[in-house]
Specification:
By secondary structure, this protein is an alpha+beta fold. The chain starts with 10 loop residues before the first strand and ends with a helix. The strands form four sheets. The protein has a five-stranded mixed β-sheet. Strands 9-13-14-10 form a four-stranded mixed β-sheet. Helix 5 packs across helix 6. InterPro entries: Chromosome_partition/occlusion, ParB/Sulfiredoxin_sf, ParB_N.
């Protein structure tokens, strides 16, 4: 049987004033280009798609010469706008397809449902063709009523391997995954990463970006801020940037070049500082916490302000006081006044933070450290005397005279103890934490406990009294967390960034404040201390006592009762590690424990249902997702929490020490 040949609807040009918008058009909600934008597009390119119309009949079924427009309502509205703007004649011929069969509403529905949106890959290739024809991003964006950012994002797909684009065209890769691959232009690396993910569970865009940026340096790194991305790029460095996601400035692909630029800039600063006459200069991006512990710090004198500087400072102070007084009782301070007060405060702080002058004879035996602070700014610490540079005939340093040495915050860096292997990913049980992780976590706790104890002079006094009584009456000080002989114990295991934590900075600032109040000559120390009031003596006592705290747990040491005492101190000062700034991240905890512990943490902080949402993930993905879920919850592992009071554990090998009742009651 011969199939029936199709006959297409006829088409012809119909004057615009003979067309009437049909009520059968199914599109009611505005979407896509506005009528104004479509009118501009028609004005630029004329009408690219015909209207579909139906003859309007009179009561007898005869054609009236008018035509209903059920398909192409937005085009009709755009033409109508051009007529109103007198940019198109009312009788201008409009290409139309004339339909007589079926229903008008059916035609409108079919025309809208069967229209396939343009694939982003086709849009990218079209934009690329226009760019090759000489059009800029702004021109392309204006012609298609999109933002230049959209144009640049689509054109960024040119950096993706053709192999991956073919997979995208076949719907084997999502657009989000393709955008993640565009973070680098290395096609070979893109394909290598995809091949590694073909049989993997996790193909999330964030994970693709993570794999593609391994071995790079984030633009937020303090070394980058110190050198400047402009200097890095001027030296030939390449920066990866992500147009689709916030990237904080991108990733630097040449860490070796960055390190060289940092070393050169630090060396140049070091030479400038060396010209001041210091015996030695050490420069590095950062130094370990406690690197100055064995050195004596010179006490400098702020360089006096010149008359002009003093007059300017007095003027700023007067204006600052006037603004504060004028708005003291106001419910709301205008934003402009707040900004002005803040600017004046910064200027006053600059006057107060003046360079120090030192004794020329001391400069000849002292040195300085040149480094980068946590914000990426230059840091120069002057005036440190090494033990071997101390003259034999000089007076004994302050640290040796005091009953409890006022040492530089921190401690010397010791060789790390034996490292333990990380728990295997397949380990599903709540196994004990790795020894090294325990040491690192309790190093954080020790610093926080030192800082908290320094804020509680009464507790610090009791703690020192406790250990002194143990040594005086029981010939033992091993049952206390305070290592009073007295010295500041070293961290045998030091986690990264320890010197930049809030407790470390607070201890250092407090130490420098006290150092400025003590005399340069140790012979004057006693008279100075006796001149302090009781509160000052207690605060200084608490600071010195806090420097001796040692609550680090290490597998090669046995300090059971001392660690029990550390728990008592934590309860007494109401230690809160979350408030001290510790947060559970992949690096600090989650990436270094078993999956069971990760799930246990999420379950405790967010509930069992939330934990079930991630229990199917591989450990790296689970740790990353858990970090996001735990952010802001204040969750802490048990080892960092202030323990609840409980009975003392039995230790047959260490007979209990009986303290007088009044001391026991005070300790409780």
């Amino acid at each position: 049987m011969t199939p029936t040949k199709l006959t297409l609807s006829t088409s012809r040009d119909i004057p615009f004033n003979k067309l009437v918008l049909s009520q059968a058009n199914v599109r009611r909600i505005k979407a896509g280009l506005s009528i104004e934008q479509l009118a501009e597009d028609i004005a630029r390119r004329t009408l690219l798609q015909s209207l579909t119309v139906r003859p309007i009949l009179d009561g007898d079924g005869n054609e009236t010469g008018l035509y209903d427009v059920p398909v192409g309502g937005r085009r009709y509205r755009a033409l109508e706008l051009l007529v109103k703007q007198k940019r198109l004649a009312r009788t201008a011929p409009v290409p139309c397809v004339i339909r007589t069969d079926g229903l008008a509403a059916e035609d409108s529905l079919a025309e809208n449902l069967e229209r396939a949106p343009l694939h982003p890959l086709d849009q990218f290739r079209a934009f690329q063709t226009l760019r090759e024809a000489g059009l800029g991003d702004e021109d392309i964006a204006a012609r298609f009523f999109v933002t230049p950012v959209v144009v640049r994002q689509r054109l960024r797909l040119v950096t993706v391997s053709p192999k991956l684009l073919d997979l995208y065209a076949e719907d084997q890769i999502t657009l989000d995954q393709v955008m993640a691959f565009s973070v680098t232009s290395d096609h070979a690396r893109q394909e290598q990463v995809w091949d590694s993910l073909v049989r993997a569970y996790n193909r999330e865009p964030y994970y693709i970006r993570k794999l593609l940026t391994e071995g790079t340096v984030r633009a937020a790194d303090k070394r980058v801020r110190f050198v400047g991305i402009e200097a890095y790029e001027a030296a030939g460095g390449v920066v990866q940037r992500d147009l689709f996601e916030p990237d904080g400035g991108g990733w630097l692909q040449d860490p070796a070049l960055l390190d060289r630029l940092v070393a050169e800039k630090l060396a140049a600063v070091a030479e400038t500082v060396r010209a001041e006459g210091w015996k030695w200069i050490e420069g590095a991006p950062d130094f370990p916490y406690g690197h100055t512990a064995r050195m004596r710090r010179l006490i400098g004198t702020p360089i006096p302000l010149t008359e002009a500087d003093q007059a300017e400072r007095d003027q700023l102070q007067a204006e600052y006081d006037r603004l504060i007084e004028a708005h003291a009782g106001a419910d709301a301070v205008p934003e402009e006044i707040e900004r002005q007060v803040e600017e004046i405060g910064i200027a006053l702080a600059a006057f107060d933070d003046r360079p120090l002058s030192f004794d020329p004879a001391e400069i000849l035996r002292a040195g300085a450290f040149v480094s980068i602070d946590a914000d990426g700014d230059l840091r120069v610490d002057r005036g440190y005397v090494r033990p071997e540079d101390e003259p034999v005939t000089d007076p004994v340093p302050v640290e040796a005279v005091a009953t409890i040495p006022v040492v530089e915050p921190g401690m010397p860096v010791a060789e790390p103890g034996p490292a333990n292997t990380e728990p295997p990913e397949e380990d599903e049980g709540l196994k004990p934490l790795p020894d090294r992780l325990v040491a690192e976590l309790t190093a954080h706790r020790t610093l926080a406990l030192r800082d908290a104890l320094a804020r509680a002079p009464d507790v610090a006094f009791l703690a020192v009294l406790h250990v002194l009584c143990l040594q005086a009456f029981y010939r033992s000080g091993a049952d206390s967390a305070l290592d009073i002989t007295a010295h500041s114990p070293a961290f045998t295991v030091q986690p990264p960034g320890l010197a930049d934590t809030a407790p470390a900075k607070a201890i250092d600032a407090r130490h420098q404040t006290w150092l400025g109040q003590l005399p340069a000559d140790p012979a004057d120390l006693w008279d100075t201390l006796t001149g302090f009031d009781g509160d000052s003596q207690g605060a200084l006592f608490a600071h010195c006592a806090a420097l001796t705290v040692n609550a680090v747990r290490e597998p090669w040491t046995r300090r059971g009762r001392a660690l029990d005492h550390a728990d008592r101190l934590a309860r007494a000062v109401e230690l809160d590690m979350a408030a001290a700034g510790w947060v559970p991240t992949v690096d600090t905890y989650l990436g270094r424990v078993t999956k069971a512990r990760i799930l246990d943490a999420v379950r405790e902080a967010k509930g069992a249902e939330t934990a079930q949402l991630i229990d199917h993930l591989r450990k790296p993905d689970m740790a990353r997702e858990a970090e996001r879920l735990l952010a802001g919850t204040g969750w802490l592992p048990d080892i960092l929490r202030a323990p609840e009071p409980g009975p003392e554990p039995e230790r047959a090998q260490e007979p209990p020490v009986d303290l007088p009742d009044y001391l026991t009651q005070a300790a409780e």
